[in-house]
From TrEMBL:
Family per record: Belongs to the SbcD family.
Keyword match Nuclease: yes
Domain Nuclease SbcCD subunit D C-terminal: 267-355
Protein name, entry field: Nuclease SbcCD subunit D
GO molecular function: exonuclease activity
Its biological purpose: SbcCD cleaves DNA hairpin structures. These structures can inhibit DNA replication and are intermediates in certain DNA recombination reactions. The complex acts as a 3'->5' double strand exonuclease that can open hairpins. It also has a 5' single-strand endonuclease activity.
A Pfam family this chain is assigned to: Metallophos
Residue ranges annotated for the Calcineurin-like phosphoesterase domain, each copy included: 1-218
Subunit details: Heterodimer of SbcC and SbcD.
Lineage: Bacteria, Bacillati, Actinomycetota, Actinomycetes, Kitasatosporales
Length: 388
C-alpha cells in the first residue's frame, strides 16, 4: 500500500506578516497532483492542519476545497488534530465526512478505533492519535502523571490491544502529533512542554509497521519506521536550510518500508545574511539572494541610518532585521535576546528570580511552584479551547 505522509500545513499562517495563503494553495494543488500521478492509496495528515484554534475564513475555505478534491480523487485521507488545531472544531461532522473517505481522528478516546484499508496483500489498520495534552487526557488514559510519555504510551497500549484482535497479517500505521526524542526542532513550532518533559521515546511506538509523525517542521527519520514529514512550507528563518518534502511510503506485504521524499513547491527561498550593512549592499556573491525572503543580521558597531530602507533597495523582500554589533570583551554586553536564546519559559523564570535576588536562584519548592504555574496556564488554555 502506498501512503503520502504530510503534516503541519498551518493553514492561515503568515510569514513575518506576509500572507502564505497562495503558497499554501499551491502546495495543496501539488499534493492532489502527486496523489493522482504517483498512484497513492491513502493520504496521512499528522496534525496542525490549521495554525490556530479559530482559523480565518480563507483558511477554512482552502481546507474545504482540499477535502473535496481528495474525496473526488477517491483516495482515503486519514487526518488527526495537532496542538495548533481545535480538536472539537476540526472534528465537527467527522461522522458524515467519514462516508466520503475523509477520516478525521480528533477524539483521544477513539484512538484505538482504526480506519481499515486494504490492498491485495490484506488489511491495513490506520490508528489516529491526535495531539494529547497530558493534563487534559490523563484521566481518560488513567495515567498517574500528566506527562507526554505516559499518555502517549497509554494510547499505544490501546492501539496494540486492538491490533491483537485483528486478523493475522494485519499491517498497522499510526498517526501521532508529538515531540519524539531525537527530533530536531526549529523556531516555528509551539512549545508543548508540560511539567518540563515533552519528549516521547521512539520505543513507545513499538509493534507498529509505520508511524507518521507531525509537530516538528523539519523532514526527518527517527527510525526507519518512525518519521516526520515536516511542514510543506518554511514558517521561520530557522528553516532556511530545510528541504521541504512529503514522504511517499510503500508498505509491503510483510510490513517492509520503502520511503521516498517528494519535493514541495518553494514559493520564495529564504536567506539569512550577516555582516556590516555596506558589506551586504556591495558583496556581488549575494546577488543570488536578491529575490529571496531575507533576514539580515547587521554587525555594525554603530547602528547605520535607515538600514531597512537601504537593504530593501537591493533585497526587496527583506522581512527581518537583527542588530548584533561585533563585540569584544566579556558577555555582559550581549543583547537580552541573545542571552535568552535556547532557554525555555521555566529557565527564563528561574533566571529572573536569580537576577532580582542578586544571584540566588529558586530552591526546589519554588521551582515546583513556578513549574506548576506554567502547567496551570497550559491547562487553562486547553480547557478554554475545549469549552469553545
Amino acid at each position: 500500500m502506498r501512503f503520502l505522509h504530510t503534516s503541519d500545513w498551518h493553514l492561515g499562517r503568515s510569514f513575518h506578516r506576509v500572507s502564505m495563503l497562495d503558497a499554501q494553495a499551491a502546495f495543496l494543488d501539488h499534493l492532489v497532483a502527486t496523489v493522482r500521478e504517483r498512484d497513492v492509496d491513502a493520504v496521512l495528515v499528522a496534525g496542525d492542519v490549521y495554525d490556530r484554534a479559530v482559523p480565518p475564513l480563507a483558511a477554512v475555505e482552502l481546507f474545504d476545497k482540499a477535502l473535496h478534491r481528495l474525496a473526488a480523487a477517491g483516495v482515503p485521507t486519514v487526518m488527526i488534530s495537532g496542538n495548533h488545531d481545535s480538536a472539537r472544531r476540526l472534528g465537527v461532522g467527522a461522522g458524515l465526512i467519514d462516508r466520503a473517505g475523509i477520516h478525521l481522528r480528533t477524539d483521544p478516546a477513539t484512538c484505538d478505533t482504526p480506519v481499515l484499508l486494504s490492498d491485495p496483500h490484506g488489511a491495513v489498520a490506520c490508528y489516529g492519535l491526535p495531539y494529547l495534552e497530558p493534563a487534559l487526557v490523563k484521566d481518560e488514559f488513567k495515567t498517574d502523571k500528566a506527562r507526554h510519555e505516559a499518555v502517549v504510551g497509554a494510547a499505544m497500549e490501546r492501539v496494540r490491544a486492538d491490533l491483537a484482535t485483528r486478523g493475522a497479517g494485519t499491517r498497522s500505521v499510526v498517526l501521532a502529533h508529538a515531540f519524539v526524542a531525537g527530533g530536531e526542532e526549529s523556531d516555528s513550532e509551539r512549545d508543548i512542554t508540560v511539567g518540563g518533559v515533552s519528549a516521547v521515546p521512539a520505543g513507545v511506538f513499538h509493534g507498529v509497521d509505520y508511524v507518521a509523525l507531525g509537530h516538528l517542521h523539519g523532514c526527518q527519520t527517527i527510525t526507519d519506521r518512525v518519521r516526520y514529514s515536516g511542514s510543506p512550507l518554511a514558517y521561520s528563518f530557522s528553516e532556511a536550510r530545510h528541504r521541504k518534502t512529503m514522504w511517499l511510503i510503500d508498505l509491503g506485504a510483510r510490513g517492509e518500508i520503502e520511503a521516498e521524499r517528494i519535493e514541495c513547491p518553494v514559493p520564495r527561498p529564504l536567506a539569512r545574511l550577516r555582516g556590516a550593512l555596506e558589506e551586504l549592499l556591495d558583496d556581488p556573491e549575494l546577488a543570488l539572494h536578491e529575490q529571496s525572503f531575507v533576514e539580515a543580521t547587521l554587525t555594525d558597531q554603530v547602528r547605520p541610518a535607515e538600514p531597512m530602507a537601504r537593504l530593501a533597495e537591493r533585497f526587496p523582500h527583506t522581512l527581518s532585521l537583527v542588530f548584533e554589533p561585533e563585540r569584544t570583551g566579556d558577555d555582559a554586553v550581549a543583547s537580552y535576546a541573545q542571552r535568552l536564546k535556547g532557554r525555555d519559559d521555566h529557565q527564563i523564570a528561574e533566571d529572573f528570580v536569580a537576577h532580582v535576588r542578586g544571584g540566588s536562584g529558586p530552591d526546589d519548592l519554588e521551582r515546583t511552584v513556578l513549574r506548576g504555574a506554567f502547567d496551570d496556564v497550559r491547562v487553562d488554555e486547553g480547557v478554554r479551547e475545549v469549552a469553545g
